[in-house]
């Protein structure tokens, strides 16, 4: 009896436990169904709402997809709940602990479902944020100007074109202003250096040195004065030097500018190669090239004298020019001994030394150095000259002594 009574009691307890478990599962599925209904109600509210905080059609589509996801989650939880009914349950004995164990399992299942599971497991839809929170977040982002909901900026192309034209005009004005300023600065510098009184040549600042009795300093000064009143930057030193060197009796000239108003000229004047005595008695000094230096009253000491019909004919005569070249090439010691020069032809230039004691026939001016060496050796050697007084070196390799 005891056994039968125990078995009866056990059979009566098992259906009771199953009813408690079914009631517990029903209680667990009820919040899920309620949550799904709330999600559907919230989605319908989003679609019907026309407030300013609701986004456009793109966000309403997102809300629909969210509702569908919640429905799928609720269906999955329902299937899991139905599958759990077929699993074996631990049944307590006759001690009366069955209801307590069922309540403990129910509370444990609810606690496990409220916590987040590992990756790959299902997520409780009740732990997800509500649609209102998501709508508020989206509305805040749209107000901040983020996302696709930002209103595009409208560009006024006419205003932009006018703005660009104004900018181009400003740039053009600045560019031309710089060019004009640069040109004005260059003109100012040129005027200050070339035309202002700061660098003009003054007459009292001209210095000349190197003249002699044949070429005076005044002749050189007259040439330099032509540049008076010009800027020293425009005064050509080379032109002045060429003008001075072209004067008869001048061998070289050098011009130095002394800023801001002065010029220093140094030149070298040569002795005349000879003096020409014309038939009218005038005596004129000439250089080695036949250039006329000046007229003198008496033949200068140590300067050879050449008799010519007239000054113009003498200067233009080829024989006289050959004689001047020979006289200019003689050393000072021999030229000072020359007392007379005759030149009937350009190949018969003859000089008299020491008042006619020695006569040298030079011929022309060719091989002048060789001829001078032969004359010097014969005239200064008494053993060779003997009692003779004429030496002909027109053919220097075969001199003739008479």
Automatic annotation (TrEMBL):
GO terms for biological process: cell division. The keyword Cell cycle applies. Keywords: Cell cycle, Cell division, Cell membrane, Membrane, Transmembrane, Transmembrane helix. The chain crosses the membrane at residues 172-193. InterPro entries: Cell_div_FtsQ/DivIB_C, FtsQ_DivIB, POTRA, POTRA_FtsQ_type. Residues 1-113 are annotated as: Disordered. It is found in: Membrane. Residues 201-272 form the POTRA domain. Residues 25-41 have a biased composition (Polar residues). Residues 62-88 have a biased composition (Basic residues). It comes from the Bacteria. This is Cell division protein FtsQ.
């Amino acid at each position: 009896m005891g056994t039968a009574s125990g078995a009866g009691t056990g059979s009566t307890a098992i259906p009771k436990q199953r009813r408690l478990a079914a009631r517990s599962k029903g209680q667990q599925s009820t919040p899920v169904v309620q949550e799904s209904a709330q999600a559907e109600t919230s989605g319908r509210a989003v679609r019907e709402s026309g407030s300013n905080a609701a986004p456009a059609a793109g966000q309403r589509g997102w809300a629909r997809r969210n509702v569908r996801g919640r429905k799928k989650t609720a269906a999955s939880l329902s299937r899991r709940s139905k599958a759990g009914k077929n699993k074996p349950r631990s049944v307590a004995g006759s001690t009366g602990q069955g209801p307590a164990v069922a309540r403990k399992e129910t509370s444990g299942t609810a606690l496990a479902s409220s916590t987040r599971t590992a990756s790959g497991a299902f997520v409780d839809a009740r732990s997800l944020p509500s649609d209102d929170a998501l709508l508020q977040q989206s509305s805040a982002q749209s107000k901040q100007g983020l996302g696709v909901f930002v209103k595009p900026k409208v560009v006024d192309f006419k205003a932009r074109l006018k703005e660009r034209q104004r900018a181009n005009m400003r740039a053009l004005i600045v560019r031309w202003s710089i060019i004009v300023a640069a040109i004005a600065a260059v003109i100012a510098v040129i005027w200050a250096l070339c035309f202002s009184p700061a660098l003009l040549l003054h007459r009292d600042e001209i210095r000349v040195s190197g003249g002699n009795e044949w070429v005076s300093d005044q002749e050189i000064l007259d040439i330099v004065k032509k540049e008076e009143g010009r800027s020293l930057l425009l005064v050509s030193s080379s032109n002045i030097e060429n003008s001075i060197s072209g004067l008869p009796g001048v061998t070289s000239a050098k011009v130095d500018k002394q800023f801001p108003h002065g010029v220093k000229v140094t030149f070298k004047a040569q002795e005349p190669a000879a003096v020409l005595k014309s038939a009218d008695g005038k005596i004129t000094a000439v250089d080695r090239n036949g250039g006329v230096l000046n007229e003198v009253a008496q033949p200068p000491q140590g300067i050879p004298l050449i008799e010519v019909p007239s000054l113009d004919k003498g200067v233009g005569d080829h024989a006289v020019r050959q004689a001047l070249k020979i006289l200019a090439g003689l050393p000072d010691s021999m030229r000072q001994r020359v007392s007379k020069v005759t030149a009937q032809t350009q190949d018969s230039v003859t000089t008299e030394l020491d008042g006619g004691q020695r006569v040298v026939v030079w011929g022309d001016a060719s091989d002048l150095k060789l001829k001078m060496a032969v004359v010097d050796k014969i005239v200064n050697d008494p053993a060779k000259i003997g009692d003779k007084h004429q030496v002909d070196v027109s053919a220097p390799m075969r001199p003739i002594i008479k």
